[in-house]
Amino acid sequence: MVKRANAHRLLGIKIAVGTQLAKHGSFKVIIAPASAPPLSLPKCIICCFLALVFAELTTFTPSLHKKTNTLKYSDMATQLLAGKRGVIFGALDDQSIAWAVAEVCASMGAKFTLTNAPVALRFGQLDALGEKLGATIIPCDATSIEELENLFQQSEEILGGKIDFVLHAIGMSLNVRKKKHYTDSNHEWMKKTFDISAMSFHKMCQVLYKGDHMAEWGSIVGLTYIAAQRIFPDYGEMAESKALLESFARSFGYHFGEKKKVRVNTISQSPTMTTAGKGIKGFQEFFGYGDDMSPLGNAPAIDCANYCATLFSDLTRYVTMQNLYHDGGFSNMGMNPKLLEG
Ligand SMILES: NC(=O)c1ccc[n+]([C@@H]2O[C@H](COP(=O)([O-])OP(=O)(O)OC[C@H]3O[C@@H](n4cnc5c(N)ncnc54)[C@H](O)[C@@H]3O)[C@@H](O)[C@H]2O)c1
Prior knowledge:
The chain is α/β, with parallel strands linked by helices and 342 residues long. The protein contains 12 helices and 9 strands.
């Protein structure tokens, strides 16, 4: 509901500042024709100035999309990451969490390169994102040390200095993809899964560390899932991949902290509708269960991206070696009566 709060009469135009106090406390400025007589010129100028200041202030207020209950990139636009240089792994299409991270980082003033496996570049949509955000795309299979070395060296050159933040958003399970039951896993495939989903994080950190590519007080973030701690049977060998990933982040967090005050963390994200997510058997039910169990509901990709941005920023300089839950409260729930009601 829109309530009229203030109305200024100005050159035959009435500027009504309507305050939309509906659901999420967002604001709107409404300009409506008026029948009232005009004001004197000095008063007009003052009214115009005040209206513009008010309009400017209101654009900083985050608002929520009514339909999707998610934030828009522009809603959180501050220059929190101005001057920061980054490398973002894992944007495949506009559903990818890394895609949202790239959009948010760009809107917050960061410069970065985008990367993905060469095969993913062929069928994904990364070109479009690179073009839109003015980011260079550098192909890199994250299991290859040589390709990682090339990626970070090129990124430093393109961005004009050492790297302030890196997002690792990589996951793929061969046994899950080929629908092999956990109790009948192919161990060669399992090794490949660990290499892609977890060892790639260690390799990435090692190349950054040995090549001294990170700036002081930089930030490295990997994305993980709570199946590292609890059993979700259909998540298969990805559970062990995530446990390994989280452990690598803690261990490298120590070494990077000692060497250069660089922090290393993982974000444990809610189920999210992405290519990797939907590859898991029964994902829809999985998603619904998480949504019902969490008092805030599942955290959307855009909110995960905002959380990543805070970890890349200087506001979180002493947060390191942590596995941080971003899951609407899911990880601390025992039972939600909502689940019993249905
Ligand atoms: N979707 C979810 O429900 C969910 C929940 C928690 C955590 N995560 C994690 O978030 C991260 C991002 O996944 P997403 O859900 O956005 O899905 P996604 O499919 O969009 O992203 C996975 C990415 O990994 C890339 N990748 C695979 N093999 C690679 C390799 N060898 N080298 C470089 N890149 C490679 C893919 O090309 C893809 O871009 C993953 O680590 C995933 O496990 C996802």
